[in-house]
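Problem 12. The chain below contains 295 residues. Write out its predicted structure in token notation.
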Amino acid sequence: MSEKPSPPWANEIPEGSFISYAPTYKVGEYFDRFHKDSDLEVSGLSYYFYDPTEHGYAKGKPYPLLIVMHGTSNALEGDVCINYAGAEFYSKDDYQKALGGAYILVPLAPEYRDSDGMCRGNWNEIETKKVHDVVCAFIKKHAEKNGGINKKAILGNSSGGAMCLRVSYDFPDFFNIIIPMGAPEIPGPELFDLYDENDVHLFFAIGKRDEVNDFNKNVAPLIPRMKKMKHSFIFTPDWVYNGDHGIASINFGYEMGQHCIINEMHCNLMFDDGTPMEESLPNGVLGWLAEAIKA
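Solution.
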């Protein structure tokens, strides 16, 4: 622990807990299951995708589509973006089996570094219509020929989570399932009214100690409305964990451990020993997602 910078909250962790400085899962093991393509004519966006019909699932029938939105600067990381966005493990055999087969789409924001080293072209600067258009273009080019799409779920981490909320606000009848994680921008309760009107399922995930969003100011007032939704699950842990049962810390001068709730979500809210991170979800977020797809 002495070799790593100590997070500012180190003296607040529960007795007997320890700090974990990296996810325990392997990065890149399933990258070869993804292809890269682009929709330059309409949206102007490139994307990674996974096709279940290339991995044992029959053609001629519709499958769900998981649209996974990455966080700021992740598109600059090449293939690693697939993992950072939280998409990689959904291509694993056991994840696919749980979903009955599913397409995966990872749209890429046109990110670049400006002269000051700032990441520009990220989701905060992109209009929602481009995301809608790239999803439509992917479906037309890659899914319709194999049987099409039934349910559409959009997942996103950090600024990708904010884009999930924004694009579903602008296109509320397009997405069936919304899973924002650590979203730094959250619309008002009118968004949840739109979700109910369109029978949308929401899995809302953010840590109570998130370093980007003020939980008490920006999130807590919305929870009563979310609880009244037709279909919602609210996951707001006090601490964010890695698979080794350690409290997550990613400290590079600006502590981001609790903002990285994607670490938990990417390993299906399961510790490495198989213990659920959320007792009310014994099959993790994957089990919740499978039920939402069937609904």
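Discussion. The radius of gyration is 18 Å. Students who got a different answer should revisit the alignment rule from Section 12.3.
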